[in-house]
Design brief:
Length: 401
């Protein structure tokens, strides 16, 4: 078969004022200008497990309107997206349907609301793609695609992870490549719509598999910058001591996402720095305790850890690793003072970088369900606003304005 892989890969913000002011996403968007692409690790991973008899083309779709005319001669179009570009993904699926090309879609959004996606796509893959992709291909090959493909929540063992087909990329377009060492998170924050939507447990990919992926990248990019696309990397410290030992001499520079507890292991911070760790993105969420209570739904972890945050940031940065502190504006406990409180927190801690976003009710999250129950969603199902930079709910102690 001729298979087309279409990741919706644009930046989306509805708030034109914010766009005019100059939106920044680390290593990706500077002052509202996209400075580099970031590949779809999801589709590259599926490409990596696609039997060689199939021809695969990978086409990033920053804007569906730009994909005109559609590529011809395809037997199957596979689409990947997050909530913000889901409408464009549905439009693209409809255009393929009109020329007789079946479509299959996947990702956290359609995993949360598969019935919606089934109205536009031939097939919907719910959850992780790896355990289902070969079934999809077999069924597509004999023209009997099913409407839904599901595995039970933890049906996929990361030890079976395929090597993503990084070689499908025009490497000159990217200033970093993503590698995933784990999925899930030991914490469950009410608003999180990342891999916790796909899997309930924390799963780790064997060190040997991660090394295979990094070595594959090194064949196409001698001195790469890697973004570990984990939601919380350093949960398993022993694992990382081994991995860091293996990558220390590979000339990598890298970025990862984690929680504040990483600061407790200064030997590990030293190993990370020596192995090329440039920056850690950490979900601080709020500059004060206000807003943190109950945010992490399993053990109120972020509220309990707040008193240690400032010292932890200093500790991490004192090991030569910059911290990108993430703050969420509009949490229920916050008041209009939060804007100055963020500014003061950043000045006091000398955070190297910040990502300041707005509380966003993503589908499939406890937050979306709660705000819906409380009648506080402004435009339910207006997924275009799932950008982290648009307001789509009524805050508790502030006006929308
Ligand atoms: C890399 C990345 C990007 C890249 C995406 C590249 C791409 N084209 O896919 C870029 C920079 C383009 C991007 C853009 C945006 N992003 Co972003 N991004 C991430 C990041 C850092 C890593 C995602 C990743 O690589 N995961 C690993 C892969 C393997 O997982 P996966 O994509 O879910 O794929 C698996 C399954 O979902 C499934 N699957 C997925 N697609 C398909 C397709 C088929 C056919 C099948 C069968 C299976 C399948 O199989 C895969 C393997 O199991 C996450 C944060 C994180 N740590 O996860 C945020 C994250 C995903 N982004 C987020 C957001 C909000 C955005 C933006 C809206 C930002 C903005 N304002 O513009 C845009 C939206 C673009 C869109 N398409 O809708 C949110 C998404 C929340 C949500 N559920 O919608 C996240 C979770 C960050 C957050 N803080 O909340 N992002």
């Amino acid at each position: 078969m001729n298979i087309g892989l279409f990741p919706m890969s644009g930046i989306r913000v509805c708030d034109t004022e914010l766009l005019r002011l100059g939106l920044t996403l680390p290593g990706f968007v500077e002052r509202s200008k996209t400075i580099a692409a970031l590949p779809s690790l999801g589709l590259l991973t599926l490409a990596g497990m696609t039997p060689a008899r199939h021809r695969v083309q990978y086409v990033e779709v920053p804007d569906g309107n730009l994909l005109d005319p559609l590529p011809t001669g395809l037997d199957l179009a596979a689409i990947s997206t997050y909530s913000a570009q889901i409408d464009e993904a549905y439009e693209l699926a409809q255009r393929f349907k009109a020329i007789g090309v079946p479509t299959v879609i996947g990702g956290p959004h359609v995993t949360a609301i598969p019935e919606e996606a089934a109205q536009y796509c031939s097939s919907v893959v719910v959850g992780e793609g790896e355990p289902l992709w070969l079934h999809v291909l077999e069924d597509a090959e004999c023209g009997r695609l099913q409407q839904y493909y599901r595995v039970d929540a933890d049906g996929f063992d990361f030890a079976d992870a395929p090597i993503p087909s990084f070689e499908l990329l025009d490497i000159s377009k990217y200033n970093r490549l993503t590698v995933q060492t784990s999925r899930g998170c030991p914490h469950h924050c009410e608003f999180c719509a990342s891999s916790v939507v796909l899997t309930h447990n924390y799963k780790q990919k064997p060190v040997s598999k991660v090394l295979d992926e990094i070595n594959r990248i090194l064949t196409i990019w001698p001195r790469p910058f890697i973004e570990f696309a984990d939601d919380n990397s350093f949960v398993n410290k022993a694992y990382w001591r081994q991995l860091l030992g293996e990558i220390a001499d590979k000339g990598l520079r890298w970025f990862a996402e984690t929680d504040i507890s990483v600061a407790e292991d200064e030997d590990l911070l030293d190993l990370m720095h020596r192995a090329g760790c440039a920056q850690l993105l950490i979900g601080l969420e709020s500059p004060t305790e206000a807003g943190l209570h109950g945010l992490e739904t399993r053990s109120d972890w972020k509220f309990k850890r707040f008193p240690h945050c400032k010292e932890a940031i200093r500790t991490i940065q004192s090991h030569g690793i910059t911290v990108n502190g993430c703050f969420v504006l509009g949490l229920d406990g916050q008041t209009p003072d939060v804007f100055d409180q963020v500014f003061d927190f950043v000045k006091e801690t000398e955070l190297y970088e910040v990502q300041i976003t707005l509380l966003t009710p993503f589908p499939g999250t406890p937050l979306y369900a709660r705000l819906e129950r409380e009648g506080r969603l402004l435009e339910p199902r207006n997924w275009k606003k799932c950008t982290l930079f648009d307001i789509n709910y009524r805050p508790a102690n502030m006006s929308v304005e």
